[in-house]
């Protein structure tokens, strides 16, 4: 083989090398997104103000805006500014299976990061820290958890709240009948119609449901509050490169002040569909997590 021929072969190999290296460097999730030309976002229908539907049935909310930042990162990483975004509705029962089987690339809702769930999926750094509370009708005159002895209460199926209420019921010997709504909207409806005395869920989710109820003033929070598990963006387990990309998008927003602006927009300003202001400022715990981001669950 002549020197010229050898040189041409070498140049041809170099020409193909970047493409091959680039393909090999992509993580499984990023490669899947690139091949599909689409990133699929899991969203909730009624988790106000995190992830819910507006009057046009379009997914909106605080979590969706955070995930928009992730999408921007993915587009830049893949050099695909025209990357399509698809939305897949999920609920408390199917959100983990849909992430695990790849139907959903990132779940942008109000999903708690727990040690048990970490065996199945991965989480971003925490973007919200809630508390468990009870919501009841004002006319019921209920004040505390002890007032619920022997009564029917409701939780939403598939949530960490359901497990907590079952444990609370057993430990305090309350004898409550625990009903399960298919989603948060059905759970609050059971209270509104008198079929359940109280609904336990994360405080901010209850505040959103209360604010958007036909008669918000009919509902009150009971006095007790219990520590709840923090929220993160959920994604497939084991893809460290993709998780870093998601984490970087959130941490950059927290450090730049963009997170605070988005929080004010969704928690302390009028929001769709009724332009109601939840008036829900950041807690001291959340402020600490924004200052020092972490993906640790309670107990880790």
Question: How would you name the CATH homologous superfamily of the largest domain?
Answer: Periplasmic binding protein-like II
- At CATH level 2, the architecture of the largest domain is 3-Layer(aba) Sandwich
How helix-rich are the residues, as a percent range? Answer: 40-55%
Low-pLDDT segments: 4-11, 13-23
The major pleated sheet works out as:
5 strands, mixed
CATH topology of the largest domain: D-Maltodextrin-Binding Protein, domain 2
Number of domains: 2
Given the structure, what is the number of helices? 10
Mean pLDDT: 92
Rg from C-alpha positions? 23 Å
CATH class of the largest domain: Alpha Beta
Strand content: 15-25%
Q: Kindly state the number of beta strands.
A: 15
In terms of structural class, how would the helical and strand content be classed? alpha/beta
Strand and helix order: HHEEEEHEHEEEEHEHEHEEHHEEH
The outline comes out as globular
Strand order of the largest sheet: 5-1-6-13-7
């Amino acid at each position: 083989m002549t020197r010229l021929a050898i040189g041409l072969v070498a140049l041809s190999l170099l020409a193909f090398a970047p493409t091959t290296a680039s393909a090999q460097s992509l993580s499984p999730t990023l490669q899947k997104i690139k091949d599909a030309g689409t990133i699929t976002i899991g969203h909730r229908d009624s988790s106000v103000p995190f992830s819910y539907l507006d009057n046009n049935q379009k997914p909106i909310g605080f979590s969706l805006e955070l995930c928009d930042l992730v999408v921007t990162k993915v587009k830049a990483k893949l050099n695909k500014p025209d990357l399509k975004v698809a939305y897949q509705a999920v609920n408390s029962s199917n959100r983990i299976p849909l992430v695990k089987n790849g139907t959903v690339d990132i779940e942008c809702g109000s999903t708690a990061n727990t040690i048990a769930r970490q065996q199945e999926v991965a989480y971003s750094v925490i973007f919200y820290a809630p508390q468990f509370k009870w919501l009841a009708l004002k006319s019921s005159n209920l004040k505390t958890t002890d007032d619920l002895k022997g009564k029917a209460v409701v939780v939403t199926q598939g949530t960490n709240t359901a497990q907590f209420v079952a444990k609370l019921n057993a430990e305090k010997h309350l004898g409550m009948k625990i009903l399960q709504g298919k989603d948060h909207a059905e759970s609050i409806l059971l209270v509104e119609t008198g079929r359940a005395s109280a609904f336990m869920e994360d405080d901010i989710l209850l505040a959103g449901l209360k604010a958007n109820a036909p008669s918000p003033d009919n509902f009150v929070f009971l006095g007790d509050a219990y520590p709840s598990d923090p929220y993160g963006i959920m994604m497939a387990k084991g893809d460290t490169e993709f998780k870093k990309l998601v984490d970087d998008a959130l941490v950059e927003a927290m450090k730049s002040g963009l997170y605070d602006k988005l929080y004010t927009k969704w928690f302390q300003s009028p929001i769709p569909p009724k332009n109601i202001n939840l008036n829900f400022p950041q807690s001291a715990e959340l402020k600490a997590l924004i200052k020092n981001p972490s993906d640790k669950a309670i107990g880790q």
